[in-house]
Amino acid sequence: MTLYPADDRFAEAVRAQLGDDVLRPVSERYLEEPRQRFVGQGGLLALPKTVEEVSALVRLAADACVPVVPYGGGTGLVGGQVAPDGPTPLIISLDRMSAIRAIYPTENILVAEAGAILADVQAAAEDAERLFPLSLAAQGSCRIGGNLATNAGGVNVLRYGNARDLCLGLEVVLPSGDIWHGLSRLRKDNTGYDLRNLMIGSEGTLGIITAAALKLFPQPKGVGTAMLEVASPEAAIDLLSLARDQVGEAISTFELIHRQGLQFLTEVLPDIRQPFAKPPEWSVLIELGLSAGQDPSDMLEAIYVAAEERGLVGDAVIAQSEAQRAELWAVREQIPEANRLVGSVSSHDISVPISRIPEFIQRGARVVAKQGPFRVNCFGHLGDGNLHYNVFPPAGHDKAEFDAQRSAVKRAVHDLVHEFEGSVSAEHGVGRLKTDDLEDYGDPVRLQAMRAIKMALDPKGIMNPGAVLKN
Amino acid sequence: MTLYPADDRFAEAVRAQLGDDVLRPVSERYLEEPRQRFVGQGGLLALPKTVEEVSALVRLAADACVPVVPYGGGTGLVGGQVAPDGPTPLIISLDRMSAIRAIYPTENILVAEAGAILADVQAAAEDAERLFPLSLAAQGSCRIGGNLATNAGGVNVLRYGNARDLCLGLEVVLPSGDIWHGLSRLRKDNTGYDLRNLMIGSEGTLGIITAAALKLFPQPKGVGTAMLEVASPEAAIDLLSLARDQVGEAISTFELIHRQGLQFLTEVLPDIRQPFAKPPEWSVLIELGLSAGQDPSDMLEAIYVAAEERGLVGDAVIAQSEAQRAELWAVREQIPEANRLVGSVSSHDISVPISRIPEFIQRGARVVAKQGPFRVNCFGHLGDGNLHYNVFPPAGHDKAEFDAQRSAVKRAVHDLVHEFEGSVSAEHGVGRLKTDDLEDYGDPVRLQAMRAIKMALDPKGIMNPGAVLKN
Description:
2 copies of one chain form a homodimer.
Chain A: H1 8-18, E1 23-24, E2 44-46, H2 51-64, E3 68-71, E4 90-93, E5 100-104, E6 109-113, H3 118-127, E7 130-131, H4 144-149, H5 157-160, E8 167-173, E9 179-182, H6 195-199, E10 208-215, E11 217-218, E12 222-230, H7 233-247, E13 251-258, H8 259-268, E14 282-290, H9 296-309, E15 313-318, H10 322-342, E16 349-351, H11 357-371, E17 375-381, E18 386-392, H12 406-419, H13 435-441, H14 444-457
């Protein structure tokens, strides 16, 4: 259906219904995204304070066939939050809906508005002596509504799942403007289709999440953190199996790190303290969250000893204090920043079946080498089968020199992922960056079903047009 | 859209395309359901052997506008598996698609066809030294496709989640006959709408699940089981919190048992060995699944001592052998059979927010008493907020005497559940039994979205018509 811009007349209609306070001039930050692949073309910015205001805004947009772009923390990496073309949109920011509405410690549930910053949700849980485990680099600025809209992942997925697994209920404004009051605190409810999970991960194309009932967990009684040199990616996978045998689901983090990442840190972030005198080719960051009566260091040492007997591990650093733990985490957490400073030719957020990761890494090296003398930094959430597979220019060169090769590199890596029955967007989503990939690699029957669902719930196509599904 | 019966002409068309082997006379078991509320009216029975055959069958049905009833193990309790009215359907049984297609121990994944019996899936996981945790009374005859179609629950939901949480990927024949090849082994894949969870719990109204990639887990190194007398439902909830503080997510089972259930066992199943000399008003069955280095008896005793100090628990039996463990489980598992032998006036599979359960139980007793001198057996998955709240005739009377009151009792209980923001189908689904409840209690915006999705994916309305959504 034809869409129309959010023009002055539309702004007048908004003011007439909602007053002057809800609209704001669009500042730059609503038109940018972290990787600068997409630049928003302006639009009308609304900052509603209640779900009823969101509903009224969407209803006005639906009546006038004006596109709507929902805006959370703006930290998404695939351009889902900015509309670079088409009629200028109504941008609905959730900034002013940031309350923690309620917390139910006995039920291990917290109800937050969509605009609540992830770190604030974590802190509210901690105040109640509970854990909200979603944890990712952008947690100081991303907002929980965006985390849910993109089904965010992060470093604790291995144990606690991604954003989808941490949500019990949603309040959503549908493309009609209707409000779905689905803030359920029920752990079990089998009364009909799973609208909640349909909304989660739909990246603002099926509705606007305005609040969520989130699952909390007991805080671990003891936390153990270590960085271990591993002989190979195979050895890392074997180490994970071995650790699982010993401590079950207590492994909250299992991150693979390649030497390239440590070398980048040395180059561009030399203040980061490196765990090993000589950077090993492969290492893993492991963290255990344990219950009462289990000593973290003992558990990690037992894992190390068993792994050492099998020749899986070399050097190891087991954190002996909170400060040492923070140092180990800084290594993992600053690798993306080092990558950004070095500047990649092409970055890939991929997953493949876990047992095929070693083969994928070998094949990937050959595939990339064919494209040119690139450096690869491959790291990430090994326990989830999710690697950040980033390709960099040779030392001494700038990424700009390889702009012309970017799409060929990306295509080569993504083709390989597809051959391995993997995903070209493991945790970042499709946004506007990967709509072509979805067309190229997605199951056609699934795509057809997705289009049918989009048409059923958003017949005018106003919700975040151009994201997930191509126009 | 008008539907037509699966008549002789349609059977001919099936035989012409798929040969004589796929069709069978409809035996009684395909027309019955355990509670005998619905009786199937016959139809054409197909037993396909491959997903391609399922696809061809559905395509023929779609072309001829013939209703399709997917059939798993037939153990569902809400009549989703039988069509009592409307044009006689094509019944597609998955009996002959029961293979375990593959198992990936390193990845903790098993791929099973929809017709695999749940107990066989559990056994295949065990053979690979893994755990498939879905566990429920019907596991010897229910089939995994039906478990997924109904998002089955059971006794391990507290720790491992329901069927939805145990599935990574699906192969599904959509109402068009198209095959969605979604048997993903990926733990993370954010490429578009969550079709998997939309299919799970849709009770055969959006497609036929033909295979699933299922999550496996490490087998616990030690299992501890105990039955504890608790002072009240409040005390049971406090005990759960206390146990969680001590052992985190290791609690796999936390089941509430009321004296009424133990008395029913004494009456109708006297061979079941009772744990307590005098049945306590309230007790709980708790089971821990522990990792290496944790002694189950020590952990349970520590929980008991702490709970005893706070006055939460009275008598307790901690299983000291596998035989004792089986005895404790038999008590819990045979309560539904005892209920069946006694004969309920009305049974309710409900959930409410966990912290409100004590209040619900008090209010429920008053609400039922107003309806008559009934006995209530309230038991079940307390940790999930899911109670089986069953109402029985007074001692010495038969349920048939109260047939006229059944709907009033049900309505009174369900009204109360609704007032408590609960669900009238926590784990059994909607089927044909609870479509009216969905209309009465469901969020109208959500219902509208469900209808739009149904229309989008099944425009002719052939898939399990009358289930979940009223015709």
